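Z., the sequence and structure:
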Amino acid sequence: MTLKLVPIRAGVDFEGYGNWQLGFRVADIAAVIESAKTLGGRQEGELLLEDDRLHASVRDPDGNTIELYQNR
């Protein structure tokens, strides 16, 4: 399988299509957030507890958002 990420050139490129982002289930969400920060990323918003799982968003150095989930 190949996963290719490309920048959006203009809003009309995806007119009529939903916006989607990658999400990953991780064993230690705090460790992943800290790792992202050391590599130039940043946490977006607060760490949330939803339906007995932790949820956070991080942005990579280019500004792309990645969702993180940790089951409790």
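The helical segments are 29-38. DSSP finds one helix and four strands in the chain.

Let me know what you think.
H.
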